[in-house]
Design brief:
Blueprint: H1 2-6, H2 9-15, H3 18-56, H4 62-76, E1 81-85, E2 90-94, H5 108-117, E3 121-127, E4 130-140, E5 148-159, H6 160-181, H7 183-189
Antiparallel strand pairs: 1-2, 1-5, 3-4, 4-5
Helix pairs in contact: 3-6
């Protein structure tokens, strides 16, 4: 009884204030922009590595390739890095023990598709520790324009606190929209 006597229509209306909805919506937009930026960063790092692999023709030199990938892995704070031929033969695999591998891998057809078409792609997976973004880009020939000689895969990790905050903002916005649907019935019941 005391709870209902403290409620009044003005308080209920304030719950559904446009400013609150706009703030939640803008927070969600910021979180989504951050997430898109994380994917773009992953692709950018992969492209940078791919270009150097092309320029220095490192696919033919196994030990130099591994050393180069380890250097870039540390520089860009990447997880797993894998290099394949355009036909799907793995040339190198470098694992960063500080970043989780996750339990998902890209199938050979996904890798071969990038080697065949030259179209990059990214796949995201949620882990307890955060989100893992796998980006695959083609490695082009230095000598024959347009020819793809390999495929590069990199893992870019977004730590749990950032991933969880984005999910929390999305959940709050969705919950607010769900409650807003019931605004008029709540006012009518009151």
């Amino acid at each position: 009884v005391k709870f209902s006597s403290n409620l009044n229509p003005q308080r209920i209306v304030r719950w559904f204030n446009e400013q609150i909805e706009r703030s939640l919506g803008e927070s969600l937009e910021v979180a989504q922009a951050f997430y898109r930026n994380s994917i773009n960063t992953s692709v950018y790092f992969a492209e940078q590595i791919s270009e150097i692999l092309t320029d220095k023709r490192l696919l033919r030199e196994q030990e130099t390739l591994r050393q180069f990938l380890q250097t870039k892995q540390q520089e860009f704070q990447l997880g797993l890095i894998e290099v394949y031929s355009a036909e799907g033969e793995r040339f190198a695999r470098i694992v960063n023990p500080a970043i989780p591998l996750g339990n998902f891998t890209l199938a050979a057809p996904d890798i071969l598709e990038v080697g065949r078409t030259g179209k990059q792609r990214s796949v995201t997976s949620s882990l307890p520790e955060g989100d893992l973004i796998k980006s695959i880009v083609p490695i082009h020939s230095k000598w024959e324009r347009g020819q793809i000689i390999g495929v590069l895969l990199v893992d870019y990790f977004v730590e749990a606190s950032l991933a969880a905050k984005m999910k929390s903002i999305r959940a709050a916005f969705e919950a607010y929209k769900e409650i807003k649907i019931h605004k008029n019935p709540i006012l009518g019941t009151y």
